[in-house]
Design a protein that fits this description.
Blueprint: E1 10-13, E2 19-22, H1 24-41, H2 48-55, H3 59-65, H4 69-82, H5 93-116, H6 119-124, H7 126-153, H8 163-181, H9 187-203
Antiparallel strand pairs: 1-2
Helix pairs in contact: 1-2, 1-4, 1-5, 4-7, 5-8, 5-9, 7-8, 8-9
């Protein structure tokens, strides 16, 4: 038995409307195993069997909560995204951009091995790509739009550039520095990116 009891249950509705339950502690153990394996061997080599072994759970328990590897990984990244601090309202567009990019750089430094383990899978697994888009990418774009709308409400000059495009530019610069050049994601990098790239694009 899986030890699912009363207030310890976490419930989701399956594709056919039935309720699937899982003890939160058991679910966390499984997601921790997923994170470790993604970091160590990558998505392609991660197996449900090994996740179950590390989490000391049955495969039946895993499949009662998730439909497969892609769904487990999406749930893990969604959980990690919820742990990120919300972007603060600093009172200025520049301040908000600096705070947001600084936060993103910190997350990337901590989780780059995990993301690297997913790089090929995102391109080759349509289900994973779709789930990651729904749970991670789209909320990030929404946060970028809120930041820009907040600046407009304050009366700051903001052009018609799509905030999602600016987010993609910032992410590309961060990953290029981390994976290719090895240069630090420090305060100087954040300030130069905001002052020489992001703000000019937003205000053109």
């Amino acid at each position: 038995m899986d030890g699912v009891r009363g207030a310890d249950r976490r419930e989701i509705r399956g594709a056919r409307g039935h309720v699937r339950t899982l003890n939160p502690a058991r679910e966390q153990a499984i997601l921790d195993a997923v994170q470790d394996l993604l970091t160590e061997v990558g998505y392609d080599r991660m197996s449900i069997d090994e996740v179950a072994r590390r989490a000391r759970a049955s495969k039946a328990t895993i499949y009662r909560r998730w439909t497969g590897k892609a769904a487990m990984v999406a749930a893990l990244l969604h959980q990690l995204a919820l742990d990120y601090p919300p972007l603060p309202d600093t009172g200025t567009l520049r301040g908000d951009l600096v705070a947001g990019l600084t936060t993103f750089c910190g997350v990337v430094r901590r989780k780059h091995a995990l993301v690297a383990g997913l790089t090929t899978a995102i391109r080759t697994d349509p289900d994973l790509g779709r789930l990651l888009g729904d749970r991670i990418v789209d909320p990030g774009f929404a946060e970028a739009r809120r930041l820009v709308e907040r600046a407009r409400a304050r009366g700051e000059p903001v052009g018609d550039v799509d905030p999602a495009t600016l987010l993609e530019v910032c992410e590309a610069l961060v990953w290029h520095r981390l994976l290719l050049t090895g240069e630090p994601l420090d305060e100087d990098f954040v300030a130069r990116t905001v002052d020489h790239i992001v703000l000019p694009l937003l205000r053109r």
